[in-house]
Amino acid sequence: MQKAKKIFAEFPDLQIVEGTRLLGGYVGTDAHRKKWVQEKVKEWARNVERVATAAEFAPHEAYIACSKSLQHEWKCVARVVPGAGGQMEQLEGMIRDRLIPALMKRRRNGGPLTQQDVWLKDVAALPVRLLGLGIPKPTKTANRDYKTSATASEAITEAILRGEDIDADKYYVKRGQKVRAAHTKAVKEAVEKESERLGSQSGQAASEDQCEEVRQSKEKRQSGWLMATPLKEHRMNLSPDEFRDAMTI
């Protein structure tokens, strides 16, 4: 800070700061970055709370609002801010304790998490094609997403720091495509492994009726309706009962 003030001493009206928002992320000291992420997490948690309230009477619209819009806000920050996932426990708790129960029309009593609560939270994090809700746990995915973005942009970052020219097509576009492909493959393998693990636990965490509903839903692929944009004019908006029938958990 003192060095910066000395360098820009000839500009007395110039404000010197230790951190600032930049391109959807944040640059600055660790303390300022953590404070910024903390405020963002509080904001997202409040928004999830609002969506959860709406989900009690309009679950389809609320689900689409979160899965196709809101969750991408914290995913974006996770990709460009290192260590953001470690600060998202409050957000993840709001998803687990308010949003998922509201979508399912299932209220938690505020007590300790039961085995079924934990199982449902983990299943909800799976993609819709694997009978989940496609709302990953931010504390688990943030660091992986950041590493992917950092690796994809490593060559261009180093070139900028060295002040060198770079062939964007050769070193950035192609490398980015390769890294994203590897990321997609790794994520797919991870979620399929998690799906198998949760499937093996369903007998202990879910009732026999729930297990049977999951099996039937998987055979009929009815959960695909969850991702349909709720356009009333095209009769694609599911009623609360229709939406919850399409859910597999």
TrEMBL record:
Locate the compositionally biased regions of type Polar residues. Answer: 198-207
Please, which domain of life does this record's source organism belong to? Eukaryota
Q: Where is the composition biased (Basic and acidic residues)?
A: 212-222, 231-249
List the residue ranges of the region (Disordered): 193-249
* Name by which UniProt lists this protein: Uncharacterized protein
Origin organism is Chromera velia CCMP2878
Q: What is the lineage of its organism?
A: Eukaryota, Sar, Alveolata, Colpodellida, Chromeraceae
